[in-house]
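Data deposition worksheet. Section B asks for the primary sequence of the deposited chain exactly as it was used as input, without tags or linkers unless they were present during the calculation. Section C holds the resulting structure in token form. Section D is free text for depositor observations; keep each observation to a single sentence. Incomplete worksheets are returned to the depositor.
Section A, Depositor: J.P.
Section B:
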Amino acid sequence: MQILLKSATIVSEQSPFNGQRKDILIDNGVITSIADEIAPGNATVIKGGGLHVSGGWMDVFAHFCDPGQEYKEDLQSGALAAAAGGFTAVMIVPNTQPAIDTKSQIAYVHSSTRNSVAEVLPVGAITKKLEGASLAEMYEMREAGAVAFSDGLKPVQSSGLMLKALQYVKAFDGTVIQIPDDTTISGHGLMHEGIHSTRLGMPGKPAIAEEIMLKRDLDLLEYTGSRLHVTAVSTRESIRLIAAAKARGLQVTCSVTPYHLLFTDADMASYDSFLKVNPPLRTQDDVDALRAAVEDGTVDCIATHHQPQDWDAKQVEFEYAKPGMIGLETAFAALRAALPGMAVSRLVKLLSDNPRRIFGQPVSPIAEGAPANLTIFEPETEYTLSDDRFQSKSRNTPFLGKPAKGSVTGIIRQQKSWFRS
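Section C:
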């Protein structure tokens, strides 16, 4: 199989052709030629206005609901959704039924996705059955191929267990992922606690629920000297805490979601259940702080927090709607909207280089002889996010039918590829 990318701008710090517009020939999963002009021959030609190519993007937090709730998403549809969003690799959380808390569940994910176009990387559970009572067999899961450890959508509440988890993974240089959220404070809230929750008459989730948990986790991290990745950071104070921890030399990294960079709690005025997420949408001041943290490098990477829900889970009274939105297919467009002035090269670092570095995944250079692990995209293309652009089984997204800028053309991962028709 040969694929020829015509006149594509290369965005890759590891490439000797970084910033140059070239033809790129991929033959059986290997980049065989990069030149100003390459004859098509028998190759499938990919071209477009403003075509760009970078190392394959990687998402660090997505929910594929398989096993247990395959009607929302399964491993195959999730991998296709990742490809449609430009991701050649995606880390999936263990909040399945049963949970991904044993080496056999890790093996199930790997065996089920062996032939998927996007690489699916399982995150092993910290606690057995995600119950927060006792540690799961993290070393065995690591040996079976778990890339990190987290209780995913159910943050570890016990300080003692979090301490043990950080100590445990230190033995093999592993990473713990945590959404900072003290559920004893935020458990009954429906949106961010503030002026808008009061106006709408909805119980709030105060920012302190996030910040107090983050302070605890950073203290435990400093005590253990381990590695922690904080995801879905959503408040100005959280950013300040993480920046201070980095300045002290702690091994902490963090990610934000595209929707926390784009929406605020003021957008909840319409009671749109598609905007019901956890952590909740915060204030404009928080959004401004998050955007600034992405710009200055405090935020290391982007996490889509792709969380499919079926129609019935969202088309109910706001109080009863399930949280979360799908995010893989809309991530790039949402980032272009939230950060319109950010250079494409910086976006690529957030989507590709940084997450791969944090979680120990290879960064393939765009060079002759290198294996193809590529995302092909058009950052300036404008279009409407219509239903046919989605590969996910679910449609719980506020972006459907909205105008967008920044389109993914396809991905190539070794001998597998997906391109938008």
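Section D:
The chain has 13 helices and 17 strands.
The mean pLDDT is 97.
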